[in-house]
Amino acid sequence: MEISIAGQTLAFIESIICGAALGVVFDLFKLTRKIIKNKIIIAVEDIIFLVICALTSFSFMLRVSSGEIRIFIILGIIIGFIMYYFSVSVIVNKIFDLLEKLLKGFFKIVKIIIFIPIYKIMLFFIRIIHKMAEKPYKLLKKVMRNFGISLKSTVTMMYNKETIRVNRKSKAAAKKRKVGKE
After folding, report:
1. CA-CA distance, 84 to 93, in Å (whole number)?
2. Distance between CA atoms of 13 and 73, rounded to whole angstroms?
3. Do 80 and 17 touch, CB atoms closer than 8 A?
4. How far apart are the first and last CA of the chain?
5. DSSP secondary structure, 65-97, as one string
6. Angle of helix 5-35 relative to helix 39-65, nearest 10 degrees?
7. Contacts of residue 115, Cβ cutoff 8 Å, sequence gap at least 6
8. Alpha-carbon distance 34 to 177, whole Å?
């Protein structure tokens, strides 16, 4: 399909705009990189950005030139991306840095106002529950000691065979019970 010179010029200008839009998407991914510094997530983001670029370029070429690959469209997308990256992107990155600082300050305030009091309240309840459970545990320990049963048994590994060592009182109590049953 033939495209007129005016149509080619319009397609070239639109491809520059498409490249600038891909530059905006790149800046958004760059912002998430500043926040999340995990190598695996960065690799996944790179793949997602690559797929977005490929799908956007393909759909743009499909709309403008009926899917025909035209060099001037590819060059327009690259030129638009480069123009955005070296001009508007600098300003956008400064705005993103300011937003990042504001968000970090906001989350710090939220942490101080909300999460720290919730943490202290939970810690208070955990201490109360621990104190409440301490008395029954001591009572159970005393009763078990009277019966000659230890609450703690030690486990040792020797040559891949598991052996359980029990305290001497427990062994003696177990022998008395066996003798009594016979």
Report:
1. 12
2. 9
3. yes
4. 103
5. HTT---HHHHHHHHHHHHHHHHTHHHHHHHHHH
6. 170
7. none
8. 68
For the stretch 164-178, what's the b/e string if a residue is b when 16 or more beta carbons lie within 10 angstroms of its beta carbon? eeebeebeebeeeee
Nearest by Cα to 19 from 89, 94, 93: 89
State pLDDT tens for residues 58-68. Answer: 999 998 888 78
Q: How is residue 55 written in tokens?
A: 């799908």
Tell me the per-residue pLDDT of 118-128, one tens digit each, with 9 for 90 and over.
888 898 988 88
Q: How far is CA 165 from CA 4, 83, 155, in A?
A: 91, 75, 6
161 sits in which H/E element: strand 161-165
Q: For tokens 């950005």, what's the residue?
A: 49
- Sign of the four-CA dihedral 157, 162, 168, 169: positive
User: Full-prediction pTM beyond 0.90?
Assistant: no
CA distance 19 to 77: 4
